[in-house]
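P.,

For your records, the input lines for the assembly:
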Amino acid sequence: DAGITQSPRHKVTETGTPVTLRCHQTENHRYMYWYRQDPGHGLRLIHYSYGVKDTDKGEVSDGYSVSRSKTEDFLLTLESATSSQTSVYFCAISEFKGNQPQHFGDGTRLSIL
Amino acid sequence: AQKITQTQPGMFVQEKEAVTLDCTYDTSDQSYGLFWYKQPSSGEMIFLIYQGSYDEQNATEGRYSLNFQKARKSANLVISASQLGDSAMYFCAFSDYGGSQGNLIFGKGTKLSVKP
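Structure tokens returned:
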């Protein structure tokens, strides 16, 4: 199994508070991704990274920011959490782009009350 | 923009029978890949199988095979000899090689239930 660790695995917080989710990989893969999964929507890309300090927006990036200061860590931050950001968040990694599968962490279940 | 469609929200199959999960995509790209993932009730996303647009043969991985029909823009997953452990959500995903960092676009999924 790909060495991907997401933390925390579960979090409950209140509207307006900042939240940071962490993705840590031990595979030394270049590409890292953050998705959210909501009923009826499949997985949607929030942000992705193609190297240290190189990040870009995905389909649903509003309200989220990311940082990647080391190859192994990719952080997702909700600056001021809203109830619409209640979701399951997945981190994924891939060694190459396009023709290689992405491998996923186990997910973080985030509830914003 | 690419679009990927899974038309079957839910399906039932009898144990030991084969089942086909449908996936169609819409793209003007020539170079792309199709992926299938399994998500059991425990929640993790498990990569199953990959098909490249230039691959001449349909991909196979154990009991999983991909029925790739390029002209029809379909990439259906076939599971042979279904097992109870195959009960899960199945997602089809599309990636354009030359596009935005090879990002995956996911369908909305098909929930497969295997009956004993």
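Two observations worth noting. The CA atoms of residues 1 and 27 of chain B lie 7 Å apart. The interface with chain A takes residues 31-33, 35, 37, 43-45, 47, 50, 52, 91, 93, 95-104, 106-109 of chain B (CB under 8 Å).

Regards
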